[in-house]
Amino acid sequence: MSAGYKNRYNILLITSDSQRTDSLSCMGSPFAYSPNLDSLAKSGVLFSQAHSCAPVCMPARCSMMTGLHAPLHGCTENGLERRDDLLFFTDTLKNSGYSTLMAGKTHFGPIPDSFEIKLITKGEKNSKGDDIFARQMALHGYSRSSSHPNPVPEEYCLESLIVDKTIESLEELKKNNNPFFAFCSLLSPHSPIDPPGRWMTDDIFRNKIPAPLFGSGEWETLPNSLKQFCGLPNNNQKNEIFPDNVHEAQGNIADLLSIDEMVSYRELYYRSAAYIDSLVGRLIDYLDSSGLRKNTLVIFTSDHGLQLFDHGFNDKHNYYDQSLRVPFIMSLPGVLPQNQNCGFASHVDLAPTITAAGGGIFDNANGFDLFTPLADGKDLPRHFAAASLYGSLALVTEKWKLEHYYFDNVFRLFDRINDPGETKNLAADPGYAGVTAALSRILLLWRSGLTDIDHLNKSATSGGPVAMRVIDRIRTDKGRNNELLAEKFLRDIN
Fold first, then answer.
1. d(CA 431, CA 438)
2. How many C-alpha atoms does 432 have within 13 Å on its Cβ side?
3. Does the N-terminal or the C-terminal CB of the chain have fewer CB atoms within 10 Å?
């Protein structure tokens, strides 16, 4: 970082796709292979209760970039476009003099002009679309479209090339007088699950992956709207919808597969996650060798997790821990604490956190700045997480998880401490009626208070006495006010 940018740090955001927390040893997994992410966590802060605010690709990524929950940015499910008038945190960084890089997968809709360098993958890993990475792979005689088994040598795989291009771009950016924000967005372990080379043959996972946890037909107990969005059929539709090959199917029902088939699929997934860990290691090694590490905030997270047949199906679009919880690590030695295990974080915290590391403020966000309290040695502001998708909401505290599927008028309540596997829905139990009622009121408070402060400030002009009283109130509001209210009332329940 150049002189004159005191307390304006370089920022490297690394994301994976569909990565469960049990793919990291530092998150307590007894079988994960994640030496580089474990080392990153030791050098910084690990949020052990980080949650996606929308456990699906597009909604989660839109929330990361805007700091807004899905009902506000409009992308409440895949295939629904976000509003195109929203501020990205990169807009704020760019306006304050940052150089900006986007490398890899976007999947958040139109890419704002605030990204100077755009090295974008078009489509998923199995896409045949033409992009800079497809052309580079073609030079070595390989197709951009991927599958299992993966014929492409590790060094020519799509994600290895994304890391190569990220490093090449950082080499150029460090010559400037500006601090940088770089977003390296990797596509694994999202399907097609295609671990390359040594990550397919190494013995690190052989005979170590546990079978999924589910009861036969457990998926049938899910609310109807959840089953609909996960593509789960009625009994008489099973064989018509789901192909026999587990590697081709999304949303497979565990009842249709053998335990060996499911474990084989899960092993491929964790091998792909280990490949991602190695790429994170390459990026950190580059920061170390280039001298950038001491002034660069590194953040690693994923958009959501995946069921991998736990609870009887393989998809996301739900609020089970396997899909909703995500890895979330922040590291800047000498500025942030080291080897510290913190609690809750949310994707809507990324925008204000990254902006704060750049010396700015992003008050439009529904989330909290986590950087400043960590750097100042103060208590963190978040003690719960909320999430939403089309037709449903969820509220997560240290002890409770409440889900509401409003198309079905169905609540689900889980005791996270005494039932960590989320096997017993307590919402209909009279003994927990008070807890369900109290949490549902707070969830309603949280949802009704979601506010796009930027839009309100832009639309507030003038008017009569009532209008001016409203406008005066708007001028003092922050996007995170509803989260602060929920925090206040949740103290009495935990």
1. 13
2. 17
3. C
User: Which residues of the chain are under the pLDDT cut of 70?
Assistant: 1-6, 234-251, 494
Residue 177: per-residue pLDDT: 86
Question: 465 preceded by cis ω (within 30°)?
Answer: no
Strand ranges (E), 323-464: 328-331, 340-346, 385-389, 392-396, 400-405, 410-415
Q: How far apart are CA 348 and CA 368, in angstroms?
A: 7
Q: In what order do the strands lie in the sheet with 400-405?
A: 385-389, 392-396, 400-405, 410-415
Give pLDDT tens digits for 77-123. 999 999 999 999 999 999 999 999 999 999 999 999 999 999 999 98
> For the chain, how many helices (H) and strands (E)?
17, 12
Backbone φ, ψ for residue 52 (5° rounding): -65, 145
φ and ψ at residue 18, rounded to 5 degrees: 65, 40
Phi then psi dihedrals of residue 186, to 5 deg: -95, 160
Per the CB < 8 A criterion, the answer to whether 20 and 306 are in contact is yes
Residue 246 corresponds to which amino acid? V
Give the full edge-to-edge strand order of the sheet including 99-104.
Answer: 117-120, 99-104, 180-185, 10-16, 296-302, 328-331, 45-51, 340-346
Across the chain, mean pLDDT equals 92
| Helix pair angle (57-66, 350-357), 10° resolution | 40
Chain centroid to CA 64: 8
Given this model, what pLDDT does residue 54 score?
A: 98
Q: What pTM value is reported for the model?
A: 0.94
Give the C-alpha separation, 50 to 40, whole Å: 16
Distances (CA, A) of 488 to 154, 350, 477, 480, 483: 50, 22, 16, 13, 9
- Cα-based torsion angle of the residue sequence 398, 329, 183, 15 in order, rounded to the nearest 10 degrees: -70
